[in-house]
Amino acid sequence: MEHPENDAQYTGLTVNSGVAQPPSVNPYLRKLKRKPIPTPGEMVEQILKGDVTMLSRAVTLVESINPDHEPIAQEVIEKCLPYSGNSRRIGITGVPGAGKSTSIDVFGLHVLKDGGKLAVLAIDPSSERTKGSILGDKTRMEKLSVHPNAFIRPSPSAGSLGGVARKTRETIVLCEAAGYNNIFVETVGVGQSETAVHSMVDFFLLIQLAGTGDELQGIKRGIMEMADGIVINKCDGDNIDRAKLAQAQFKSALRLFPPTASGWQPEVLTYSGYYELGIAEVWEMIDRYFAFVKENGYFDKKRHEQARYWMYETIDTRLRNNFYNNPDVADLLGDLEKQVLGNRLSSFIAAGKVLDFYYNNSK
Length: 363
Ligand code: GDP
Description:
The chain has 363 residues and is an alpha/beta fold. The protein folds into 3 domains: 35-82, Single alpha-helices involved in coiled-coils or other helix-helix interfaces, CATH 1.20.5; 84-296, P-loop containing nucleotide triphosphate hydrolases (Rossmann fold, 3-Layer(aba) Sandwich), CATH 3.40.50; 326-361, no CATH class. Helices cover 49% and strands 11% of the residues.
């Protein structure tokens, strides 16, 4: 008997059997197979045709932390490399609120007026804002996000700065192969990301605001030194005089800096992203820069230096990963660390031991 309460002695009482609960996992789910990853050859073929869906998939592979994806991503990048390089790579930085999104929107439309395609990428390892928030970035750049020739991609989600930067650098290669001849790389001008961006762009634009008279404070000297152009935003309404004053201050500050490696004298301009004033002038400056560095050979020299930098950077990362991801090394490190903390072994001897072990045991 199913329920003792259903026994004849309990008249007037029946217990019905319960209703079976549906399984918590959708039984049809298994039927929905994941789309298989296309072969690197197929991906590259579509990317070269400018297929945005395939480009996005490839970028997702580049950004993936799944170790199985890495060799596929690397093969795609390698196959795209011969088709890359033919673009103007422009880094854009400024503190939050400086007007980067507003400006990139209008700068982007300005460059797209002449045809061509634009990719907007970002390096922002610390950001909460960009954690997978494509929508966030799309609404930040209202007009560009609906432009058929613009490709907007938020920063790879948080990780080490080096890792995030490498992924962005690799994404540039894919975008160029897909025919994007203008690349903007945006970064929040507060930390070290500027150096990373600088290592992958041809022109570095610093967006500044006119403040309370002490504009030069709070801007890291190093960031100013990297800038090929400084533009003071929000030069509109009541703010025009202050913006002009800031322009004069930046100009005189720049005069104290040592000459740049390119021989280019960084310029300081004012504009208004919101009211779209002075945009053409900013781009004329950028055009002048490109003409100047292509003429004097610095353009190629810098790209070569960047390629070398990324080669060593990659070697560095791979060596480290290979070392730290080795389970035997990890075990030994754990042991040695205890000994060092217990004052039984010096740090140097411990380091030597684990490195010797690694050299002797790695293929
Ligand atoms: P981001 O944080 O650097 O991306 O800056 P946003 O583009 O989001 O701009 C920050 C704020 O400044 C927004 O409220 C904008 O509307 C405003 N803003 C941006 N550009 C201008 C400008 O040229 N003039 C004025 N008056 N406000 C601007």
